[in-house]
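SAMPLE LOG
Freezer: B-3
Tube label: C17
Construct: single chain, 363 aa
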Amino acid sequence: MAALQQFGAHHRSRYDIPLIALTGSCGKTMSKDLAAAVLSTRYVVVKTPGNLNNAIGCPLSLLCIDDNTDVAVIELGANHVGEIAALCKLARPTESAITMVAPAHLEGFGTVEQVAEAKAEIVDALPGDGVFYVNADDPRCVRIAERHAGPQVSYGKQGDVVLECCEPVGGGEMRLTVQPVGDLRLPLVCRAHATNVLLAAAIGLNHGVEEFESPLRDALAVSPRFRVLRIGPFEVIDDTYNANPASTAAALQTLGERSGGPRIAVLGEMLELGDAAKVLHEQVGMLAGGVGVTHLFARGPHAAVMSAAARAAGVQQAECIEDHGEIAEAIRALERPGAVVLVKGSRGMAMEHVIEALRRYYP
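STRUCTURE (predicted):
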């Protein structure tokens, strides 16, 4: 691995191009893909394939840069302090962003404060004239930005790039009014993902991009995140890509906004939360009741904790079911007009198997 990293770092050093490095507790892969799509309307872009954001994926991504490349968008992940700093030594970012700071990988970090300190390494790695894109809606990101004396571009409910409106318009789409871009109609289901759009817009604007809606639509259409499926009588929100408390809360909020039938949450364990796992799963169960989830099926070591909290918070039915096929059977028993199912969990829980099992009932 050391040889690969040295090779990747040396290869990167040969190209004097902008390199935008992205990290964060949620949304970094989507933000990377959206930013690359927007930039591609004007430049030849290299981006991290998928979510290959670790000590192997980063140098492999850097090796994709060639003489035709105008700009690179590289995703950096970490589960312990010092990892992002090490990756930045390879990538040498000229611009960077932290999508958000939230409880994730606490098994390695210990506390959210340590998560913030680890993410801040992507700011510390910038040159003096490097640009930092600031999520103005995240107080931790705003505090981290104080470490950088160079140029900054802010985005959020206030700042340089502002979300003035975000409302559903039907057909699995939302209308966003983003200043100074204008109105965008995009295939978005989860309001929280509007922040990823804002970051992509901020990056694009900073690089002179003028076309936004078309590349954003195209990128969102093929995103593996938050896909809305029709399986028999059920509308299924497939968010099985991964999970942590912040992304699960956003997904539950989206489910709670649905009306007309049962709102069914199928939640796998949120992994790598360390000593905070019990209380964080309990909070997710409570949130499920608070947003109006009617049925919850939980899977994993903290399923009982989550289910008990959900029942206490008003969820009509909350059960622990470990087998993917049995979860699909439980969903099928709730066949009603307007039923909506959210399926989510950490990658290691393989929650996509629930969707596969449900499909077998409705070929």
